[in-house]
Amino acid sequence: MKTRMILVAAPSGAGKSSFVDRAIKELPELEDVITYTTRAMRHHEVQGHPYHFISEDEFKNKVDQGFFIEWAKVHTKFYGTSLKSLHDAWNSGKVVIMDVDIQGVRTFKQKLPEGLKTIFILPPSLDELKRRILNRDKVVPTDLDVRMKNAAIEMLEATNFDYKVVNAEFEESYHKFKKIIEELLRLR
User: Fold this and answer.
1) Residue 72 main-chain phi, psi, to 5 deg
2) How far apart are CA 71 and CA 20, in angstroms?
3) How many CB atoms lie within 10 A of CB 38?
4) In terms of DSSP H, where are the helices of the chain?
5) CATH code at 81?
6) What does the pLDDT look like over 60-72, one tens digit per residue?
7) How many Cβ atoms sit within 10 Å of the Cβ of residue 144?
8) Looking at the whole model, is its pTM more than 0.90?
9) What angle do CA 180, 125, 45 make, to 5 degrees?
10) What letter does residue 75 receive in the DSSP assignment?
11) Is the dihedral of CA 90, 17, 148, 76 positive or negative?
12) Closest CA to 33 of 96, 95, 90
């Protein structure tokens, strides 16, 4: 079965968004589907990149309307993917690549198992992950303890993924990640 979708998961701060963003710039066959979230925008983000930022009420209305193929509460906020955005990408001949949480991967495996491949990005350690989160956010996130607890649980799920990459040094780790993606694109 040809690859139609590549899901990239990792604990918050492990580098999955950086990997996916760079792969999209370098590999025109890929398309990132912009998901929806109720979390606040970070200082370097804008509406529509990397998310559609909406209120919790708007999100719940979309859930009630059946807008999302998958959605989940992650840490303390909601995230969801519209089915229409996936079909739009596939109809244009693209392979969808998304960074998602563990719950999202499970849902996609149940609902769209054909042509789905998964990659898990691991931090070199939980201490390094915490350092990266603190450096990225520039302040101590109010949910840091929740993120670290979830990270330890999420890392146990790595064995259920098709591929794993440890993000110790970004360039070297990204090169391994990109080689996996290029191989999956060859299987189209």
Assistant:
1) -160, 160
2) 20
3) 20
4) 16-26, 56-64, 83-91, 102-111, 126-137, 144-155, 170-186
5) 3.40.50.300
6) 999 999 999 999 8
7) 17
8) no
9) 70
10) T
11) negative
12) 96
Token couple for 110:
């149940």
Residue 94 CB neighbours (<10 A): 18
Rounded to whole angstroms, the Cα distance separating 163 from 102 reads: 14
Q: Are 23 and 177 in contact (CB under 8 A)?
A: yes
What are the tokens at 90?
């596939």
Q: Give the type of residue at 187.
A: L
**Residue-wise pLDDT tens digits, 22-47:** 999 999 999 999 999 999 998 889 99
Q: Tell me which residue range forms the domain holding 62.
A: 5-186
Contacts for 163 with CB less than 8 Å, ≥ 6 apart: 117, 118, 119, 120, 180
Total domain count, the chain: 1
| Cα–Cα distance, 183 to 119 (Å, whole number) | 13
